Amino acid sequence: MTQESPDAPVVVPWYHWFWLFPVAWFVRLWLATLRFEYNSGLIDAGEGPLIVLLWHDRLFVASRLANQYFKLPITTLVSASKDGAWLAAYFEVMGLKAVRGSSNRRGAAALIAIARSVRAGNHAGVTPDGPKGPARFCKPGAIALAKITQRPFVVLGISYASYWTVNSWDRFALPKPFSRVRIIVEKQPVPRADDVDEEVALRLQERLNTLSKY
Length: 214
Prior knowledge:
The protein has a 7-stranded mixed sheet. Strands 7-8 form a two-stranded antiparallel ribbon. Helix 4 (107-119) runs parallel beside helix 5 (141-149). The protein has helices at 17-33, 62-69, 82-93, 107-119, 141-149, 197-211, and strands at residues 35-38, 51-53, 74-78, 97-100, 123-126, 153-160, 163-165, 173-175, 180-188. By secondary structure, it is α/β, with parallel strands linked by helices. Strand 3, helix 3 (82-93) and strand 4 form a beta-alpha-beta unit. The chain has one domain (14-211).
């Protein structure tokens, strides 16, 4: 891994992309076995860009949702770290765009970049507890983005009928092949300018926890 400056996001060297494609192919096959159930049809039919929220531990199915159930493209917010470099590269192979940054590094630059993407007509995909937690704790960055862009939230409640968990900070969940995946879509309004970010974040956190059950 190399960096142009101390603040530049880490990137994946070109020669590592050769094995990213087989991994993506394998994940696509895995996702194709899952049985998805939704409480709505096309999520963004005629509504314009949205701030899409899901927990970090449910990212395994993110590319399937983005490519099959959203009409507009999704730009994701990914950490500028080494781990984020692999996730951003993986997302690109799976058909998702990525803006690099987090609350700890390049936060302001990332917020500006993803706000521009939303204004250009793309959804923003945000894991509000990423990139390093605490798990299922909603940080206020997504609220700042909604206030800047004046776009509403979509909370994605994602539950797996059968799954494995990884020994990671978020207990990352892997749905077992051929298992059922339940998606509950819930719209939340644009926060007002005088709303306290932390209070809005707490409300969104409660909804995400209620709808995304272990």
